[in-house]
């Protein structure tokens, strides 16, 4: 049995940073994720006027309460998975500033609405592939709310010409390309003069649990949010309070380690897992259980145990689309075919994940059929190959899982895992060698 202590959730850390920078008083983020995406988010907010210390020692940590309900705030976990504390002191938002979004969807979608509240010009650009990631719907929604933005094709690079005030009001958006368009607007909406009434029109919005995380965290900071009508979010104008945010371990970062247990017949415990989580643990547990794992939770954490069987699965992954690469890797190693659907929008993730998985899983021996919104995967005799990652951390996770079973699988670039889990190579090596 391997016990795993993982850093905090990328998504919760990103939201906590934005809400803290927009708050009326100081905040602390306890056990944040310290990785490329969250470091870029901190740098973006710093350049807009917030003071953010990401080098803080672990002093005076708030006690981990019993899992707090949605009404009271963040659920905390009892066991330390790193003890860093970041401190954030909001300041007047102002330009001129330049923001590097890297390849982070959270930064490129959450920071422009904050920049719109700044007084001055803010320029955004990122990694070469970031220019291909969808952004137009949030740019157009911001324009409809009175924000002046220069952008040739509706994507990066772009310039937000803030005046210090966003009128807000009503906006319509097609967020079928990413839930982050909605989350980005909602997080800044309490600071819009008229608040925000945002209505989605189009194919379903993916990643519903991430939307719920956004509205939970807004409420925890004191915002008034109504999401009672499907596809409509209402956020009232009002102050956001500074507070302590206690970040849960990252569930998506845990997925490859759970997969490792499943393909090797071992067990992995993710320490410090809260009894009530704001991440979609129920969906992951259901998927892994259907594929053959045994999953349990006790005071030690969340344990996934391999049983020696690994079944294929038919699944709609739209709610947990960032798990697709790891589930697809498991599917390539299973005893029956799989059909993964509902994830058309992951063609706009760090790479076109549907095309990339079809190509790379095909190379290592699976029979893969690509669909516009997913993949059919028929396991085949495994072959050695160089598995390309396309600078995508979750492709690296998929390759690592395959490499546990297939001989001679080489990973083209493990450094891309720094996007969300810089410790991945060491943690993986520790898991495999038991060190
Ligand atoms: O809001 C967030 O923190 C995220 C939302 C999801 O984005 P999409 O809705 O674009 O899939 C998810 O895949 C991404 O990794 C993180
Ligand atoms: C899709 C992902 O990230 P991003 O926040 O950059 O969209 C991911 O981490 O799988």
User: What ligands can be seen in this structure?
Assistant: shikimate-3-phosphate, phosphoenolpyruvate
Q: Please describe the biggest sheet, giving its number of strands, its sense, and whether it closes into a barrel.
A: 4 strands, mixed
Q: What is the class of the largest domain in the CATH system?
A: Alpha Beta
CATH superfamily of the largest domain: Enolpyruvate transferase domain
Task: Trace the largest sheet across and list its strands.
Answer: 1-14-16-15
Helix content: 25-40%
Share in β-strands: 15-25%
Keywords: Amino-acid biosynthesis, Aromatic amino acid biosynthesis, Cytoplasm, Transferase
Enzyme class: transferase
Pathway: Metabolic intermediate biosynthesis; chorismate biosynthesis; chorismate from D-erythrose 4-phosphate and phosphoenolpyruvate: step 6/7
Catalytic activity: 3-phosphoshikimate + phosphoenolpyruvate = 5-O-(1-carboxyvinyl)-3-phosphoshikimate + phosphate
């Amino acid at each position: 049995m391997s016990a795993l202590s993982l850093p905090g959730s990328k998504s919760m850390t990103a939201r906590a940073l934005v809400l803290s920078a927009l708050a009326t008083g100081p905040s602390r983020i306890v056990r944040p994720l310290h990785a490329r995406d969250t470091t870029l988010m901190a740098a973006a907010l710093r350049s807009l006027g917030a003071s953010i210390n990401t080098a803080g020692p672990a002093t005076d940590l708030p006690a981990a309460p019993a899992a707090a309900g949605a009404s009271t705030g963040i659920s905390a976990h009892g066991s330390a998975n790193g003890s860093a504390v970041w401190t954030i002191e909001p300041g007047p938002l102002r330009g001129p500033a330049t923001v590097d979004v890297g390849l982070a969807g959270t930064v490129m979608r959450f920071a422009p609405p904050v920049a719109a509240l700044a007084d001055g010009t803010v320029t955004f650009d990122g990694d070469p592939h970031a220019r291909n990631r969808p952004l137009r719907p949030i740019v157009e929604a911001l324009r409809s709310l009175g924000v002046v933005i220069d952008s040739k094709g509706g994507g990066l690079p772009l310039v937000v010409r803030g005046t210090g005030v966003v009128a807000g009001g009503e906006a319509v958006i097609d967020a079928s390309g990413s839930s982050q368009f909605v989350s980005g607007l909602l997080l800044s909406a309490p600071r819009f003069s008229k608040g925000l009434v945002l209505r989605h029109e189009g194919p379903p919005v993916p990643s519903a649990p991430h939307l719920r995380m956004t509205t939970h965290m807004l409420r925890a900071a004191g915002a008034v949010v109504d999401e009672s009508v499907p596809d409509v979010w209402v956020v009232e104008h009002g102050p956001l309070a500074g507070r302590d945010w206690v970040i849960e371990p990252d569930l998506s970062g845990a997925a490859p380690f759970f997969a490792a247990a499943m393909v090797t017949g071992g067990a992995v415990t993710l320490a410090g897992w809260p009894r009530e989580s704001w991440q979609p643990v129920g969906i992951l547990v259901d998927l892994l259980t259907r594929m053959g794992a045994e999953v349990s939770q006790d005071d030690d954490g969340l344990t996934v145990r391999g049983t020696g069987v690994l079944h294929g699965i038919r699944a709609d992954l739209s709610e947990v689309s960032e798990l697709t690469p790891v589930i697809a890797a498991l599917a390539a190693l299973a005893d029956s075919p799989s059909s993964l659907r509902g994830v058309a929008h992951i063609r706009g993730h760090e790479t076109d994940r549907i095309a990339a998985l079809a190509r790379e899983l095909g190379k290592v021996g699976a029979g893969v059929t690509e669909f516009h919104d997913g993949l059919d995967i028929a396991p085949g005799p495994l072959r050695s190959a160089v598995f390309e990652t396309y600078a995508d951390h979750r492709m690296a996770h998929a390759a690592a899982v395959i490499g546990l079973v297939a001989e001679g699988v080489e990973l083209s670039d493990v450094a891309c895992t720094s996007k969300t889990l810089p410790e991945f190579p060491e943690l993986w090596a520790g898991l495999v060698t038991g060190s």
